[in-house]
Structure prediction request, 360 residues.
Amino acid sequence: MKYEPIYYGEYLKLDQILDSQKLMSEKHGSPAHDETLFIIIHQTYELWFKQILHEIDSIHKLFSNEVLAPNSLSTISHRLNRITEIQRILNDQLNVIETMSPLDFMEFRDFLVPASGFQSIQFRMIELKLGLRQEYRLHADKAFFNSRLKKEDRDFMIKLEENTTLLELIDKWLSRLPFGKKENFDFWEHYQETVDKMLSADAQIIKNNKTLNEKQIEFELKNLEATRETFSVLFDEKKYNKLKEDGEVRISREAKLALIFIKLFKDEPILQMPNQILDLLIDIDELFTTWRYRHAIMAHRLLGRKIGTGGSSGHDYLKKSTENNRVFTDFFNVATFLIPKSSVPELPIEIKKDLSFTYE
Prediction:
């Protein structure tokens, strides 16, 4: 043997792990059978959160380089994919905890006050490191969350706010995309012309539609005008920056244009890996949203309309946080600005060559 032998249980510190399920119900003289399950489920969540943070930190480090090495993209994609697979396990674990009935939970629930899952510092770290800053949370959520933390945890989270988030790093990375403008070619001028033609054609279709009455035509044209206004924000820096100031968008205009370009030309060899990374970030947001939603449904099933152990409104609080606490909504919204493949402006041959693998 090249190295000193090690025993399985010692390597995994099983004596510590398997001895860490201390039942509060037992301490109060009435051991509840399902409290063991409850503890193991939450301890397992925290172990998976630790692994997710390990992956996020490594991805942060790669994106923090002033120039991202091309071979880093595959590592980033691989680690983001690992996070999504862990998230699927987190969602599946809810099936196990739902084997506990409301009466089973009531056997030990009162012993847990005021402990609560929203005191999970690791999960809050995941949210923040991904891009969910305090400013993006509901006001009530911010005040309530901070009041329930120990001072050292609250101070730690405040300090963590000083760090750059993954969303901000990706914003900078996307903003450097070089293909939209060249010396003699501006893709966005052609894109804007195409959008104008497309919307004008839609207006004519609405006006000539014999199945619509006057009011319906007026309503459809009003909706079309709203669509035109949505597109116009892309081409007006002042309008876009105002939306960013108001928190309607979280990424820069340059990054948004890069997102659209990548999605329109996702099959080009150079853009395939960036597109895959963007899709994985959307998956991460979707899977956490699913997890929060299922968590809210589970809380409703176990608690009904009771308040949570930490003093929150229980099911109602969890339901509100489901939609509000998303990070990559700008990436989802890119679909708004996509146009049919047949209408996408043709790229000059030199840009097509830059987007391809060239071997000579």
Observations:
- The CA atoms of residues 48 and 86 lie 7 Å apart.
- The chain has a mean pLDDT of 91.
- Residues 269-303 form the longest helix (35 residues).
